[in-house]
Amino acid sequence: MPDAPNTPAAKPGSRLRKLGLVLPKPPTPLGPYVEVNQVGSLLFLSGTLPIVDGKLAFTGRLGENLSTEQGREAARLAALNALALVQEHLGDLDRVKKLVKLTVLMVTTAQFLEQVTVSDGASNVFVPLFGPELGHVRVVVGVQSLPVGAPVLVETIFEVG
Description:
Helix content is 29%, strand content 25%. The protein has three helices and seven strands, in the order αββββαβαββ. The strands form two sheets. Strands 1-2-7-5-6 form a five-stranded mixed sheet, with helices on one face. Strands 3-4 form a two-stranded antiparallel ribbon. The model is unreliable at 1-9 (pLDDT under 50).
């Protein structure tokens, strides 16, 4: 049974360490905008990409030269980058109450129909941290292209305390 919400063990930072996940260095903006914007108790993040050590981990199109599993990994990496931005902005991941909304955009062929499976790569990062009982809404979209040739972009909205 998962830890009950609002208990010390249920804190996202504690769960992150328990899962053995290490957050990457937070990404920097690709243009004249900020990566994180807080309005009241909501934290809005710009789209995060599957960047590792300052470079895209994957490029291409799902269903053409990228597999569903590569897409899932790209979504997982983008989700970890989102958490790194939250950590940098708040100073403490434990201040996050929940993930409110997750949007996953991915570059696909017209025939590719596994967008939901690819986006699970991001959801599977967040659910163990915030608990399935808190849930998050999700939008999954296939698109023609994304910035800098990225195959996946993750957009998130968090509630913070």
